[in-house]
Every structure is written in structure tokens, then in C-alpha cells.
């Protein structure tokens, strides 16, 4: 999944610019992952119903 690369990029940039706590970025990425999973689940459910 390409979004993993995006999170790695965020982690690296955040480190260079601010050096702030990684857990903020990690929790952000986990939240996005959760939302993506919900969207994927919805799509598969819709497909099942349309069949």
C-alpha cells in the first residue's frame, strides 16, 4: 500500500523540522488506517449486496 510510504515521509520530515514526539504522527497514521479499513469494509459490503 502506497500510504505507508507517505507516513514514513511524514515521520522523516517531522523529525528534521521539529523533532517532536513520534507518537503524534503514529497515532495519526493509525487513525487514517482505521478510516481506510472502514471504507474498504463498506465497499466490500456494498459489492456483496449488489451480487
What descriptors fit this protein?
51 residues, elongated, single chain, mainly alpha
If you had to describe this structure to a student in words, what would you say it looks like?
This protein is an all-alpha fold and 51 residues long. It has one domain. The chain contains 2 helices and no strands. Helix 1 packs antiparallel against helix 2. The protein is elongated and about 45 Å long.
Quick gist of this model?
With 51 residues, the protein is mostly helical. The protein contains two helices and no strands.
Question: Helix and strand string, N-terminal first?
Answer: HH
Mean pLDDT value: 70
Low-confidence stretches: none
Total E-strand runs: 0
How helix-rich are the residues, as a percent range? over 70%
Assess the beta-strand content as a share of residues. under 5%
Number of domains: 1
| Rg result | 15 Å
- What would the principal axes of the Cα set say about the shape? elongated
Largest sheet: none
Number of helices: 2
- Helix-strand category: mainly alpha
For this structure, the quaternary state is: single chain
Protein name: Aspartyl-phosphate phosphatase Spo0E family protein
Organism: Bacillus cereus
GO molecular function, one term: protein dimerization activity
Pfam families: SpoOE-like
SSE order and pairing:
Layout: H1 3-17, H2 22-50
Helix pairs in contact: 1-2
Amino acid at each position: 500500500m502506497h500510504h505507508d510510504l507517505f507516513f514514513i515521509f511524514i515521520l522523516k520530515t517531522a523529525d528534521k523540522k521539529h523533532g517532536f514526539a513520534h507518537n503524534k504522527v503514529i497515532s495519526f497514521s493509525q487513525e487514517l488506517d482505521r478510516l481506510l479499513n472502514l471504507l474498504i469494509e463498506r465497499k466490500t459490503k456494498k459489492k456483496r449486496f449488489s451480487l
